[in-house]
Amino acid sequence: MSVKVLSPSVSAISRAAHRIKVLQTHVTLKQMSSAASSANDVIIERIGDKGVITLNRPKALNSLNLAMVRKIYPEIKKWNDESLVKFVIIKGAGEKAFCAGGDIRGSALVL
């Protein structure tokens, strides 16, 4: 019994390399876009004795992602520890939704 070794053609390797490069560029652009948009995805204010958190991703129906939770949690913890805030108001930007829940698409990109 003989074993035949198949070697891919140069053009097949070239096409595969091109596809990998396109995918890497796409992922990099998506990450850059995500990082840029995450700068203002949560607006946190303290107005007198009230904490105001605005979910600011109206195009994504204000769905929560990990970056947003990482911004919100320390502020709520600080407000609780300082006892300066009597209550917290959480609102959503835009007209369509308060919050659509967790951002599954964004979480999949992270993985």
Write structural notes for this entry.
- The chain has 111 residues and is an alpha+beta fold.
- It has helices at residues 10-38, 66-82, 104-110; strands spanning 42-47, 50-55, 87-92.
- It is elongated and about 80 Å long.
- 11% of the residues are buried.
What general outline do the C-alpha atoms trace?
A: elongated
Calculate the mean pLDDT score and round it. Answer: 81
Annotation, overall tally of beta strands: 3
Secondary structure tally, helices: 3
Helical percent range? 40-55%
From N to C, what is the helix and strand string? HEEHEH
> Which class of secondary structure composition applies to the elements?
alpha+beta
Gyration radius, to the nearest Å? 23 Å
Q: What about the largest sheet?
A: 3 strands, mixed
In whole angstroms, the N-to-C terminal distance is 44 Å
Strand content: 15-25%
Residue runs with pLDDT of under 50 for 5 or more positions: none
| Spatial ordering of strands, largest sheet | 1-2-3
